[in-house]
Amino acid sequence: MKGHIVFSAAALMLIALYLKFSIPGPFLYSQHSRQMRREIMERHKDLAFFYQTLLGIKEGSPEDAMRYLEVDLEVPQTLTCKDLSHITALDYVGSGFTKVVVKGTLLNGKSIALKSVHGEGNDMKKCVRQYGDHSGCHRLATYKLQKEIALLQILRHPGIIQLHGQCDVNGAPPDIRVTAMLELGSPLEMIQLLQTPWEERFKICWELVQLLHYLANSPMGSVALLDFQPRQFVLVDGSLKVTDMDDASSEEPTCRRDADCALAFPAKTFTMTCLDTGRCAGSNEKRNLYNAYRFFFTYLLPHAAPPALRALLEDIMNVTGDLHIGINETLEAFDDVLHLYKSGRNHSQTHHLHDYTVLRGHRMNDTDGDFRCWPSYNHQGCLLSMHSAAEAAEFCNGHPQCRNFIISQQRTWTGRYLTAFTKNCLHLVPDETYSLYVKRSGHSDMQKR
Ligand SMILES: Nc1ncnc2c1ncn2[C@@H]1O[C@H](COP(=O)(O)OP(=O)(O)OP(=O)(O)O)[C@@H](O)[C@H]1O
Ligand SMILES: *[C@@H]1O[C@H](CO)[C@@H](O)[C@H](O)[C@H]1NC(C)=O
Ligand SMILES: *[C@@H]1O[C@H](CO)[C@@H](O)[C@H](O)[C@H]1NC(C)=O
Ligand SMILES: *[C@@H]1O[C@H](CO)[C@@H](O)[C@H](O)[C@H]1NC(C)=O
Ligand SMILES: *[C@@H]1O[C@H](CO)[C@@H](O)[C@H](O)[C@H]1NC(C)=O
Q1: Distance CA 363, CA 229 (A)
Q2: Ligand 3 pocket, 302 CB below 6 A?
Q3: pLDDT digit string (tens) for 250-281?
Q4: Domain at 9-184, CATH class
Q5: What angle do CA 244, 246, 250 make, to 5 degrees?
Q6: Domain 187-343: CATH superfamily, name plus number
Q7: Is the model's pLDDT at 14 over the cut of 60?
Q8: Choice between 105 and 424, residue whose per-residue pLDDT is larger
Q9: What is the DSSP track for 282-311?
C-alpha cells in the first residue's frame, strides 16, 4: 500500500501530555459538574485504550500507554499545524452530528479535507442543553474526534480514508481544537450510482467486501461500524472509503444468554450464540455484513447485472441476506463473480462476429448521439465494457438499431474494453488504437475521409 498513514508524533505527544496531566482532574476540572467530570473520565479511559492499541502495548494499564507516548516515536512526519496555517481556498464540505468537514488547498496545490468538532452541531447543542457547560461539551466531542484519529492510525486499508496528519492548536484546556487532515473524497450519491453501469456498482460492493474482510480480521480484532450508512462513505478516485470511524467498536457485545445476542434490524432479527467468555460470537462481523447487504448489495448488485452472472449474484444476495455465510466466504464469492466476469465465459459466441467487417486503425470522430443504451458510460450514446469483439457483436446483433461498434484500448477496472455502439457511421478518422466493426448487411452511408 502506497503512502502509509502516518501521524505527527509531536501532536500525539501534546495530546498525551495534556491527557496525562488531566487524569486526576480535581484541579483542572473543578469548573465542571460532577456528572460532566464522570463523562469526561469515561471518554478519557476509552481514548487511552485506543492509544494503548496504537502503540501496541499489551501490558500495563491504558494510562501507562500515555506515558509511553512521550518516548520518541519512529513515525514519519506528514502534515502538521504548519501545513494547516498555509492552507487556502477553504470551503465547507459537510457536517454531521458531531463533526464538520471543510476542504482546503495545501501549498503544493493538493486538496485535503479538514475535520474538526462542529461547534454548532447537534451533539454540542444537545450536550450544552444538558450540562450548560460549553467547554466540557467541546472536550467530550473532541474525544470522539481523537478516537477517530487514533483508529485511523491503527486501521490501515485502501477502504479507509487516509489520515495525512493532525493539528492540535492549543493543546490545552479549555477548548482543545483538534483538526484531522484527511484525504479528500466526494460524497457517495446512491441515486447517481444507480445510474452507472453494473460494473461500477459491482466495484463499490467488491471494495466494501474487501474493507469488511479487513475489519473482521483487523489488528484490533473484529471491528464493527456501529453507524453504518452510505453517508459515512466517500469516493476517492472512484474508490469507496469509509470516513466516519468514531462509531467503530472492536468489542463484541457482552451477554449472559443467547437471547442477549439478538441482532435486530428493521426487517429482520438474527439470533447468535453467547460464548462462555460472555461475548456474542461474531456479532461485529455479522452486523457489518448485513448492513452491507441492506444498504449496498440490494440496491447496487442485482439491477441490470450481466445475465451470465445472475445466478451467482442471486446466491450471494440470498446467503448474505440471511447471514448464512461470513465475510471470508462472501469475499470468495465476490472474487468468483469477478473472475467469471473477467474471463468472459458464458458470453462469447464467436459466430456473431461473422456478420461484421473489421476496419482496424479507425474510429469515428464522434461516438455520441445516435444510439442510446442504458446504463452507458456516456450520457448521449451507448458506451459499454466488453470482454471481446465477439461479445460486442452479440450485443449489437441483439439491438436492431445497432450497426457498428468501435473497440478502444481503453479498459475498465476489470480489464474489459470500452466499446461504443452506433447506428450510423459517418466520419472516420485514422487512429491506430481503435478497431471499427461494421455490420455487413448494414447501410452503405459510410464515407472515408
Ligand atoms: N474525507 C472526506 N472528504 C470529503 N467529505 C468528507 C470527508 N469526511 C467526511 N466528509 C463529509 O462530512 C460529513 C461529516 O463527517 P462525519 O461523518 O465524520 O461527521 P459526524 O459528525 O460523525 O457525522 P454523523 O452524524 O454522520 O456521524 C460526512 O457525512 C461526509 O459527507
Ligand atoms: C455459465 O457457465 C457455467 C459453466 O461454466 C454453467 O454452469 C452455467 O449454466 C452458465 N450460465 C449461463 C447463464 O449460461
Ligand atoms: C433465500 O432463499 C430461500 C429459499 O428459496 C428463501 O426462503 C429466503 O427467503 C431467501 N432469502 C433471501 C434473503 O433472499
Ligand atoms: C478469514 O480469513 C483470514 C485471513 O484472510 C483468517 O485469518 C481468518 O482466520 C479467517 N476466518 C475464518 C472464520 O475462517
Ligand atoms: C465530426 O465530423 C463532422 C463532419 O466533419 C462534424 O460536423 C462534427 O462536428 C464532428 N464531431 C466532432 C465531435 O468533432
Answers
A1: 43
A2: no
A3: 999 999 999 999 999 999 999 999 999 999 99
A4: alpha beta
A5: 110
A6: Transferase(Phosphotransferase) domain 1 (1.10.510.10)
A7: no
A8: 105
A9: THHHHHHHHHHIIIIIHHHSSTT--GGGHH
Rounded to a whole number of angstroms, the distance between the first and last alpha carbons of the chain is: 48
Backbone φ, ψ for residue 133 (5° rounding): -130, 95
User: Which residue has a Cα nearest atom 5 of ligand 3?
Assistant: 318
Give the integer Cα–Cα distance in Å for 193 and 110.
26
Sign (positive or negative) of CA dihedral 287, 293, 299, 300:
positive
Domain residue spans in the chain?
9-184, 187-343, 353-448
Say yes or no to pLDDT of 55 above 80: no
Burial tier of 107 (Cβ tally within 10 Å: 0-12, 13-18, 19+)? exposed
**Spacing, Cα 314 to ligand 2 middle (Å):** 14
- Which ligand 3 atom is nearest residue 320's CA? 13
Burial 144-182 (b: 16+ CB within 10 A, else e): bbbbbbbbbbbbebebbbbbbbbbbbebebeebebbbbb
Pocket of ligand 3, candidates 269, 286, 315, 322: which has the most ligand atoms within 8 Å of its Cβ, to mutate? 322
Instruction: Judge whether 145 and 180 are in contact, CB under 8 Å.
Output: yes
**Rounded to an integer, what distance in angstroms lies between the CA atom of residue 246 and that of residue 143?**
9
- 390 Cβ below 6 A of ligand 1: no
Give the model's pLDDT for residue 369. 64
> What was the pLDDT predicted at 57?
65
Enclosing H/E stretch for 364: strand 356-364
Cα(370) to centroid(ligand 5), Å = 13
Please tell me if the CB atom of residue 229 comes closer than 6 angstroms to any atom of ligand 4: no
Q: Which ligand is nearest to the CA of 219?
A: 4
Whole-number pLDDT of residue 46? 84
**Catalytic residue of the set 64, 175, 227, 315:** 227
CATH superfamily of 353-448: Hepatocyte Growth Factor (3.50.4.10)
Ligand 4 close to Cβ of residue 326 (< 6 A): yes
Q: Is 379 in the pocket of ligand 5 (CB under 6 A)?
A: no
> What secondary structure, in 3-state letters, does 224-262 show?
EECCCCHHHEEEECCEEEECCCCCEECCCCECCCHHHHC
In this structure, are residues 421 and 404 in contact, taking their beta carbons and an 8 Å threshold?
yes
Q: How far is the CA of 318 from the centre of ligand 3 (A)?
A: 5
Match 461484421 to its residue by C-alpha cell. Answer: 356
Residue 227: active-site member? yes
Q: Which ligand is nearest to the CA of 367?
A: 5
